[in-house]
Design a protein that fits this description.
By secondary structure, this protein is of the alpha+beta class. The protein has two domains: 196 residues, Immunoglobulin-like, CATH 2.60.40; 90 residues, no CATH class. It is 14% helix and 33% strand. It has five helices and 14 strands. Strands 1, 4, 8, 11 and 12 form a five-stranded antiparallel sheet that branches. Strands 7-10-9 form a three-stranded antiparallel sheet. β9 and β10 form a beta hairpin. The protein is globular, with a radius of gyration of 25 Å.
């Protein structure tokens, strides 16, 4: 079983931490910073023999961990991390340190990831079947981790990292296992994230997503006063809205209402007539006051003002103003 510990440190003076794992890590100085430190311990991997298309491959298995499936890359156990950043902080840097190194042997013919196969024949590109054959991995070099970036869920910034406790050395076919891995996430002060609603239901969702739910304590829930509140919004055209044959959108809305959800039907025409959803409107990409604003749109305005863009801007409005 994987053992997980998370330390959340708010340091207001110079503080030195001496690590017992490896001198490579040395000393960490935290000065007026908020850093997140995670320690992971993994069970010893098991090497299984599998056969694909008449060829024998080695598959590396660690209990409870999925396996990477990158095309023509070694399939290795991966620990996906979803780390919530503290309130008012942005990502500065990520440091990953591995300890207790063990060689599992050399000469492994490791399983490699195959192609993704479409489920329908609408893709015109010629895609071969998932035929697994030997791939030249002699120059392959494993990485201990992969920083996938910070993404937002319900206004909360979540850092996604993939850890790889097993490394593959392509030149020799050696497998190297690190039993213990430490992840240090450095953060810096930010201006905050304006798309944060502070609704309790958002806290509940994010709590189930992240590996460090205790970090939610750095956020404050807010009571938002809104004129309207809708749990479920249906976007369709006028014809479908007014349709009265068969199972209609009105039937769907009535069902949702019976389940205790506040519902509303909005037509695409209504959205297109509202100037607030234009590129320079209240919820447009070119409005700095828009809580989802990223940068000025100086070119390709049509791309940010077409029908999909305006529908997206309406969804932003419903998300922020209706609590949808």
């Amino acid at each position: 079983m994987e053992k997980f510990r998370m330390f959340f440190s708010l340091i207001v003076f110079v503080f030195l931490i001496t690590l017992s794992f490896s001198p490579v890590y040395g000393l960490v100085k935290l000065r007026n910073d908020i850093n997140l430190v995670f320690d992971f311990s993994f069970e010893t991997p098991v090497v299984e023999k599998i056969e694909k298309n008449g060829e024998i491959f080695d598959r590396i298995v660690i209990d409870d961990l999925p396996v990477s499936r990158d095309y023509n890359k070694p399939c290795l156990p991966v620990k996906p991390l979803k780390i919530l950043l503290p309130f008012g902080r942005d990502l500065k840097d990520v440091h990953v340190f591995a300890y207790d190194k063990t060689s599992l042997g050399v000469g492994f013919n490791i399983e490699v990831g195959g192609r993704l196969i479409p489920l329908v024949n609408t893709i015109q590109d010629k895609v071969s079947k998932d035929v697994v054959s030997s791939v030249d991995l002699s120059s392959y070099s494993s990485s201990l981790y992969r920083n996938l970036g910070v993404y937002f869920s319900h206004g909360f910034p979540i850092l996604h990292i993939n850890l790889f406790p097993v490394q593959y050395v392509g030149r020799t076919g050696e497998l190297v296992f690190y039993r213990n891995i430490r992840v240090v996430v450095e953060t810096v002060e930010s201006q905050g994230h304006t798309a944060f609603r502070g609704l309790q239901k958002d806290f509940d969702v994010v709590e189930r997503i992240v590996d460090n739910p205790s970090c939610l304590s750095t956020y404050q829930s807010m009571l938002r006063s809104v004129n309207e509140n809708y749990d479920y919004v249906i976007i369709t055209n006028l014809e479908f809205k007014n349709c009265n044959t068969g199972y209609t959108f009105q039937d769907l809305m009535d069902y949702k209402l019976s389940e205790g959800l506040n519902c509303k039907i909005v037509t695409v025409g209504e959205i297109l007539l509202n100037q607030d959803y234009r590129v320079n409107g209240k919820w447009g990409d070119n409005n700095p006051d828009n809580p989802f604003y990223q940068r000025d749109v100086s070119s390709n305005l049509d791309l940010f003002d077409d029908i999909p863009a305006r529908i997206r801007n309406f969804i932003r409005y419903a998300y922020m103003e209706w609590g949808t």
